[in-house]
């Protein structure tokens, strides 16, 4: 009986051990599968794809101060809204300043040193006992549940430019970040942060190279200063997976900086410039003029940028070859709340009202349009337009094998060179960027030059997309 008992115990223990080994192997396999990147670069290097190779149209929102200003309940309200409106990327600062703290008062760093993140020891089920990084983790996870990527800036550019972040500390911090978030599937890294690449260049390279080496499954780019593009400094860097530019907040008359690229409001020019570079990399406007912010940014007495302007930036840049677009709203980007002592840039509304601003609700119509046709064969093609104009009279055109999109911001008549896409006959319609509805025009022979007359009167904001297909 003793022998039988001993034998049974041996068998039982062996089964437990075997089960444990198999369980560990299963867990490792599951972990490896879980770590498969959710966001990739398309085969032609122009666009993004999901983990299944399907098109991913980047529709971003600038929620820069999300981690510091909103508590968990507020963060969920914001993420729920952005999910409903079709946003799939939130651009956010991890550290806006070195004294950054969250809505619960927890500091991100010890003694304002990026190499020393402040971590509370132990595990708590009470959110009030969590630290800053637990709060970041919570928001990242909640975004992931909603199919939203967090495009995170490790440390805002002016902190590095001021000399408060050494190269050694930057490397330590970037390595720590990569280790902490490499297993989160919904991460994108935005190196830089409203900064010239000529400022602290080596530090940005250290951060970029460290993030990519320690966390190769997540895409990395660089968020530059206004009227600048990442490709000007880092296009050939192996850590830069795609380009981003900030077309900025000035209007044509204000764009007088002699050091500027002088593209003015023509954000399609940045796309055009990046599109011609090798190696080929996706590019997008990561910060155009925000809805509700003054022209030129700093003077609240200037006119405010509107939903009309936001749509123009969006369609111009995407039709010029962009892989997506990032929207912004003045109150939302700073998460302005009634408890704030002051606002920036003259903002008077609060974030929870401005999430429903017209422009924010209209961005999904661009996303829906781009995903409604074949995606990876799309190219910019200005040869389609027979009578183009300048500034707000510009018509920006793009096409795939079987369709053409042409955008007018002010609804002026324009002529199209037909015969570029296949088919003897084509169907024509007007797509309304303000509500996503189509209005049929008719069928035409697919040859020659034809003039199209958009609905409504000639005025800025009477924007339409001509859709041709067969």
Automatic annotation (TrEMBL):
It comes from Dyadobacter koreensis. Residues 42-376 form the Apiosidase-like catalytic domain. This is Putative collagen-binding domain of a collagenase. InterPro entries: Apiosidase-like_cat_dom, Collagen-bd_put, GH. Residues 379-468 form the Putative collagen-binding domain. It comes from the Bacteria.
């Amino acid at each position: 009986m003793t022998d039988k008992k001993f034998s049974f115990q041996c068998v039982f223990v062996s089964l437990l051990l075997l089960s444990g080994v198999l369980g560990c192997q299963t867990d490792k396999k599951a972990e490896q599968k879980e770590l498969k990147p959710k966001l990739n670069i398309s085969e032609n290097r122009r666009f993004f794809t999901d983990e299944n190779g399907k098109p991913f149209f980047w529709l971003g929102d600038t929620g820069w101060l999300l981690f510091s200003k909103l508590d968990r309940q507020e963060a969920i309200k914001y993420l729920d809204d952005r999910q409903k409106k079709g946003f799939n990327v939130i651009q956010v600062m991890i550290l806006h300043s070195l004294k950054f703290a969250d809505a619960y008062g927890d500091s991100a760093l010890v003694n304002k040193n990026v190499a020393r993140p402040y971590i509370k020891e132990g595990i708590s089920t009470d959110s009030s006992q969590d630290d800053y990084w637990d709060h970041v983790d919570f928001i990242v996870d909640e975004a992931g549940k909603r199919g939203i990527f967090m495009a995170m800036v490790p440390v805002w550019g002016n902190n590095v430019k001021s000399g408060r972040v050494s190269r050694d500390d930057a490397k330590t911090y970037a390595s720590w970040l990569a280790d902490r978030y490499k297993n989160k599937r919904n991460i994108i890294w935005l190196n830089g942060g409203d900064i010239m690449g000529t400022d602290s260049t080596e530090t940005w390279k250290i951060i970029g190279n460290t993030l990519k080496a320690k966390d190769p499954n997540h895409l990395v780019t660089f968020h530059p200063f206004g009227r600048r593009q990442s490709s000007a400094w880092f296009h050939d860097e192996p850590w830069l997976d795609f380009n981003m530019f900030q077309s900025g907040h000035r209007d044509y008359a204000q764009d007088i900086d002699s050091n500027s690229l002088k593209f003015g409001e023509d954000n399609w020019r940045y796309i055009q410039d990046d599109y011609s570079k090798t190696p080929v990399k996706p590019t997008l406007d990561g910060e155009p003029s925000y809805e509700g912010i003054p022209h030129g940014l700093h003077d609240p007495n200037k006119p405010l940028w509107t939903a009309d302007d936001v749509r123009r930036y969006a369609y111009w840049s995407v039709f010029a070859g962009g892989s997506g677009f990032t929207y912004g709203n003045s109150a939302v980007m700073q998460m302005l709340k009634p408890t704030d002592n002051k606002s920036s840039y003259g903002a008077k509304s609060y974030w929870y009202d401005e999430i429903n601003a017209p422009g924010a609700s209209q961005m999904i119509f661009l996303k829906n349009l781009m995903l409604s046709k074949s995606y990876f064969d799309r190219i910019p093609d200005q040869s389609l337009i027979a009578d183009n104009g300048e500034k707000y009279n510009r018509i920006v055109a793009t096409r795939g094998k079987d369709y053409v999109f042409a955008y007018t911001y002010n609804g002026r008549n324009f002529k199209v060179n037909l015969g570029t896409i296949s088919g003897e006959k084509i169907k024509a319609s007007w797509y309304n960027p303000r509500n996503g509805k189509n209005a049929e025009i008719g069928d035409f022979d697919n040859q020659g030059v034809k003039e199209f007359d958009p609905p409504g009167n000639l005025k800025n904001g009477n924007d339409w997309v001509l859709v041709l297909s067969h």
